[in-house]
Amino acid sequence: MDLNGRTVLITGGTGSLGKKLTRKILSRWHPKRLIILSRDELKQSEMAQSFADPCLRFFIGDVRDKDRLYRAFDGVDFIIHAAALKQVPAAEYNPFEAIKTNVLGAQNVIDVAVDKGVKRVVALSTDKAANPINLYGATKLCSDKLFIAGNSYAGGKPTRFSVVRYGNVVGSRGSVIPFFLKMRETGVLPITDPRMTRFWITLDQGAELVLSSFERMKGGEIFVPKIPSAGMMDVARAIAPECTTKVVGIRPGEKLHETLISEDDGRHTLEYDTHYVIQPQFSWWGEERKNGGKPVAEGFSYSSDNNSDVLNTLQIKNIIKEFCDAEESDILRAANN
């Protein structure tokens, strides 16, 4: 995929992944424009100070506002849809707000992308969308379905939609690693359940997955990377072995283990060297779109507790060190601009 001379837009682009994607895109290509669409003017101002590229544009706007999207998507070639309300407890308490952003906002992105002739859209999903038990996961499952069906909805238009689904992003805003790093000062780390496991992916890996999906996509796939799992007790020991742990119980809407591919989805999943593809169940998805993928075994599912790739304490420590080094680099970069 060549982004030289193209216009790229990232919804929710001031988030952790949006900033990582921005840095990668600007280091590899010379886009005509790279548009960051988000609601928070302060974060946009802070991000603008960290980047000094003339192709960057900062648009204040909300995916709930369809009229604003019509203006923002004008002349755009590629879209990365990262905007969402993501906090599980907040979505449980404010369900209508999560639906407005995660579901109706997704529909707005699809409608406007088709109308404006955007070439490709990659939407970000979450492991919580597989067999969801909380409202956030349910809204993201709905969003995934909308984007996949968007390929039918586009009809003869050139716009193609695909989805990228992965697990916890190391160091993303609101994630457990920054929280544990802060709480270790107290000497006690709160653990929801000592048996809990999660999938883990670094910001760098997440950004690479999104960018590579633009190259791979035919339209209609849910891309799922092969990534490691880790137990929450191992994460706690890696971050603060000197601390004690306190079991506080699973929060409302939280699972003991997360799933990226359910057994039901496994029946139409293809395996590749580095990832899986959940195929859409539409007549227009033919053999020519499989691109060498092999069907997974009968009864296959991909969950954080049945994953064969499990991080040990040393590996977790190395990942945390990479996160802390990256955070320090971002702070120094912002200070020097």
Give a verbal description of the structure.
With 337 residues, the chain is an alpha/beta fold. The protein has a domain at 7-167 and 202-226 and 261-304: Rossmann fold. Helices cover 40% and strands 20% of the residues. It contains eleven helices and 17 strands. The protein has helices at residues 16-28, 41-50, 66-72, 88-93, 95-115, 135-153, 176-183, 203-216, 232-239, 263-266, 313-336, and strands at residues 7-11, 33-38, 56-60, 78-81, 120-124, 160-164, 168-169, 188-191, 197-201, 222-225, 229-231, 244-247, 259-261, 269-271, 275-278, 294-295, 302-303. The strands form four sheets. It has a ten-stranded mixed β-sheet with strand order 3-2-1-4-5-6-10-15-14-16, sandwiched between helices. Strands 7-9-11 form a three-stranded mixed β-sheet. Strand 5 (120-124), helix 6 and strand 6 form a beta-alpha-beta unit. Helix 1 crosses helix 8 (203-216) and helix 9 crosses helix 11. The longest helix is centred in the last third of the chain and has 24 residues, at 313-336. The protein is globular. The two termini are 30 Å apart.
